[in-house]
Amino acid sequence: MNNTMVSTIDKSKALLDVKDATGWYEYEPSYDGVITHINTAGARLFGFTSPDDVIGKKINELYAHPFDHEKTLSMLFRDGQVNEFYTLMKSRNGKLFFIKQASSLITEGLYKCPLKIKSEFEPIQSMFSL
To answer: What string of DSSP letters covers 37-92?
Structure first.
C-alpha cells in the first residue's frame, strides 16, 4: 500500500508542469508529418526548451499511440477539419498527457493538393484525476 502512495505522488509530480499549462497551443506539420512550426508554449509543453528543438521532428513521435495521428489524418481528409479530438500525447521525457485538438487541412490550387495541417491544442486538466 505504501508503494502505491509513492507511485501516485511520483505520477502527480511528473504531470505538474502539464497541469499548470493553460490555454491553446499551436503547431503545423507538413503534409508528410514533419513539424514546420510550433509556438514556444507548445514546445515547452512537450518538454523542449524552444521551438527550434521540435522543428524537423515527425509529429507522430509526440503521440502516445501513433495510430491516433492516422485517425486524425483520415478525419482531416474526409472532412477537411477535426474539432475537439481528444488524444494521449507524450513529452520528450515520456510523460503522458491528454490534449483536445482542433485541426484543419491547408490545401493549394485547383486540385486542392494538401500542403500542411494547422493544429491548435489544449492540455486537458480534468483527465489527470483518473
So the answer is: EE-HHHHHHTT-SSHHHHTTSBGGGSBSSHHHHHHHHHHHHHHSEEEEEEEEEE-T
